[in-house]
Amino acid sequence: MQDPDHVELVSAIENGDFDRANEILTTDHENKYIHPVGVLQVTALQMAAWQERVDLLERLYEKGADVNVVDKIGRSALYYAAHNGNPDVLPLPVCWGRTPLHQAVKNNYADVVRILVEGGADVNAKDERMITPLLLAGSAVNRDNHEEMAKFVAIVRILVTAKAFINIIHPDTGTTALHHAAMLGSAKATVILLSNGAWPMFKCKSSGSTPLHIAASAGSIETLTALLEAMQPHNIDTRDHLNRTALHKAAYQGHRECVRILVNHGCNLAAVTKTGVTVIDAIFAHIPRPLAFLTDILDSCVRTVNNSPLEKDENITVDFSILAPKHQMQMAVVTAVIVAASGIAQLAILQHPLVETFLRLKWARLRILFFVLLLVHLIFVIFLSIYAVMLVRDDPECVAIRRILLISSCILLIHNMIQVLLEPKHYLRQLETWLSLVCATLTLITSVAGEFFKCDVKSRDCWVLHSISIAILLSWMQMMLLIGRFPMCGYYALMFSTVLKNILKFSDFWMSLVRTVVMMMGEYEYEDLLSADEKGKAAFLPITSRIVFFIFILLASIVLINLMIGLAVNDIQALEREGHIRRLLKQAEFVAHLERVTSHKIFRSNWLHPRFKMLLHSRRDIPTKIMLTSRENYFPHMSHITDSQRVICADLIEPLLQLATKTSFQNDNLTDKNIWDTKLSSMLINLEDQIRELKTHCYRSLVNQRASKICGFRIKKP
């Protein structure tokens, strides 16, 4: 049977009625109320520790209460004090328990943790789930509360200083203390852990995320920078279980500055997840104004080289490392941009001077292969046209022409099959692929058929002539599109195709009627309208009629045709810009295709001669960093011009120079701003020190004056 006064004592302490508790303790002459009571076997000492009542603790301790007694679930008085964050209570009990330290760390009580550690608590103690106190640090912290974050940093510093195991792994989540610090965005705690040997690239068990992934997802710039400085550059693209990099995580959350920092440290923009999402895809989908953001990043890759004050802005360095990731094909990033872009507006990023220069250099290395393909196609088109004429004339000497067509059509078919096998989703949606496949197939069929039987040209049902007619039309169309990849001719071919699409768009009856009338203007017969009749009578109004007819021709034919062109091409500059973008698009696709073909494992096998492999490598890759000289300065020093500068024309060098000057100007302004901010801060600090000294001086003067008055009054009083 429990004593009612004993139960009332514990209840009074628990409910804060300390006067009643003191009265009960005063009547307890036998010290019988220091023992456990109730279902949970709680002691009055434990309740006093929980309520932070030092006076009650002293009275109970004097009565012989055991500070090491635990309740039914194993909690001691020290546990209750640590759980409630009462540092004043802790020095009284002498206890080496482990659980109180866990609880103090979990509840972010830095003072309690310090007292426990100074008292000799085991910082590497494990609870029943094998969790150490360091793994509980920050579990109940609000990252937006600066005071709580400061306590968290203090706890981490205390535990690390006390030789806590830094890289202990949480048994449930597989995370470390560094993961928790990165999740909270605490750069100070991250630096403390890293400086004491924390693993920056350790993957957690649940998702495979590293602290870098977590910091990038949280958007903590300082924490991300601290992690990047502590890790090896080749580990920056470490993947999680879904093949996502830290750059993916930052882009998914829309953290622009984190993305910028990661890219500047060498993250791969073409990294692909298991679901096929590249970093460029994530940027276009989640970053506001992605084109402006990517443009700023590309701008930062062009910088000036100031060898001396006199040579300022004359030499620039162009860094292509952002476009050419390591251990991957150099066209991977450009290809990712092309795939991610949803329209011609987003493809305008290809016009950036850095990207266009990169494509120009890649084109200069691989253009020999393009010229070979163009030569094969030119031979194919010319000999196909000659073969059609000879076939119509029934020329018996067309056998050699037919066999040349057979070989060239086979080469084109093989080339198209390689394209489709390498990138089926992309090339099967391209008009050029189908044009080339159809015309090469038709030519191959007609060439093979011509070797075995002869077609009667006069017969209307001769399928060979129909096939060749279709093949000739398609081959010349393909030839025009192929020429569109030339840097000099690309505008005209692509503008022609765009104008053709616009002119052929007649959506209603009246447009069709106008088109028919314009086409029939050339059908007017001059002799029938204006010549004399058969009787020799002169024509009616011979001079006036001719003037009116001439004006009609000017108005009806020339003006209307130009009006049609003006309606079709409503914005010449916009069309030129679009033609430029589409030409760069076709050029980039072709260069990427050639790079994929030359990077195939067939061309890396051992049966190839080493010189041939070196030749392919030299034709495939370009240097990721080049130096350019202003056009105004390199003519007197022609010997210093690099091969890259000979390839790059003036219309690209000048924008690069302007871009480098702009970047240098922005950096100078930023440096000047930082210098001014530093000077202003130092001025404010000096001013505060002077004000503090002035206040101290005034206070001392005032005290001396008052003291002198008091002393004078006392002296005069006797």
UniProtKB/TrEMBL annotation:
Placement of ANK repeats on the sequence: 40-72, 96-128, 173-198, 207-239, 242-274
Record keywords, A-Z: ANK repeat, Glycoprotein, Ion channel, Ion transport, Membrane, Repeat, Sensory transduction, Transmembrane, Transmembrane helix, Transport
InterPro entries found in the cross-reference section: Ankyrin_rpt (IPR002110), Ankyrin_rpt-contain_sf (IPR036770), Ion_trans_dom (IPR005821), TRP_cation_channel (IPR052076)
Entry GO CC: cation channel complex
Topology of the protein relative to the lipid bilayer: Multi-pass membrane protein
Record SUPFAM superfamilies: Ankyrin repeat
GO molecular function per UniProt: monoatomic ion channel activity
Ion transport domain segment(s): 503-578
Transmembrane segments: 331-349, 369-392, 404-422, 434-453, 465-484, 547-569
Pfam families per record: Ank (PF00023), Ank_2 (PF12796), Ion_trans (PF00520)
Compartment list: Membrane
Protein name: Ion transport domain-containing protein
